[in-house]
Design brief:
The chain has 255 residues and is α/β, with parallel strands linked by helices. It is 38% helix and 20% strand. Helix 2 crosses helix 3 and helix 4 runs antiparallel to helix 6. The longest helix is centred in the N-terminal third of the chain and has 14 residues.
């Protein structure tokens, strides 16, 4: 489905029935990437999965990307869908968008799982962002990227977005006072072998977000939710989103 959001035509898909669950993909990803993790729509949820600005079937006529603008786009999409309270999962760049959404409008997000999303870009990530190029991908991966982002010049613009991130300091700058405004119960997921973001950043998020939990995936890289990590992530994330963790805490505190 496609709807007009601000200056873009945003594409999104919905599947399943129940309470709304927002899925936000990572950089150079698609809304449908959730299928590589959950395999089928999580039971009991109406899954809403947009392609973010400039990705997949969502255009970006001005070719000016920011995570904050993506959050504003997503907020408008939820308003058009008459969703005023949502649970959400955000992966990498999608997690950054989710942090923006949860700070822009705290009441909108009930619970969220934020995977491999930093409060700011460290220099080790900026160095990779500035130099990221098609030459760093194998031919097979590059061909898949072109299939996923097929419009003329689209893949080149996505690389340009990444290069610009390496020199941007205001879009991803979640200070502890800002993070403290998040009211959503938050599960922070980090791999302890993330080549972009040191695991200490996960601790920073945990210390700053009031109602938060931290899951460090042993020997996990960036986005440790695919492949052999997927089954455990599915089990853990759905348990958290159901509220099992907060219910368990309430029971422990009553003893």
């Amino acid at each position: 489905m496609v709807t007009r959001i601000h200056d873009i035509d945003m594409y999104w898909e919905e599947t399943g029935e129940g309470e709304p669950l927002l899925w936000l993909h990572g950089g150079m990803g698609l809304g449908t990437d959730w299928m590589h993790i959950y395999k089928e729509s999580p039971p009991g949820y109406r899954l809403v999965a947009p392609d973010l600005r400039g990705h997949g079937r969502t255009n970006d006529p001005e070719s000016r990307f920011s995570f904050r603008q993506c959050a504003l786009d997503v907020r408008e999409l939820l308003q058009q869908l008459h969703i005023n309270r949502v649970k959400a999962v955000g992966l990498s760049g999608g997690g950054i968008v989710l942090l923006h959404l949860a700070t822009l409008e705290p009441a909108l997000v009930e619970r969220m799982v934020v995977v491999s999303a930093p409060p700011y870009f460290p220099e080790q990530a900026r160095a990779i962002q500035r130099s990221f190029s098609p030459a760093m991908l194998g031919e097979a991966d590059l061909a898949r990227m072109r299939d996923r982002h097929p419009r003329d010049g689209q893949l080149d613009r996505l690389f340009e977005y990444t290069h610009a991130m390496g020199n941007s300091y205001d879009d991803v700058n979640f200070t502890p006072p800002l993070l403290s405004t998040i009211s959503a119960e938050t599960l922070i997921v980090f791999g302890d072998r993330d080549f972009l973001y040191p695991v200490s950043m996960a601790t920073d998020l945990r210390n700053a977000i009031p109602r938060s939990y931290l899951w460090v995936v042993p020997n996990g890289g960036h986005g440790p939710v695919f492949g052999h990590d997927a089954p455990r992530f599915v089990e853990t994330s759905l348990s958290f989103l159901r509220g099992d963790w907060s219910a368990s805490n309430r029971q422990s505190n009553s003893r």
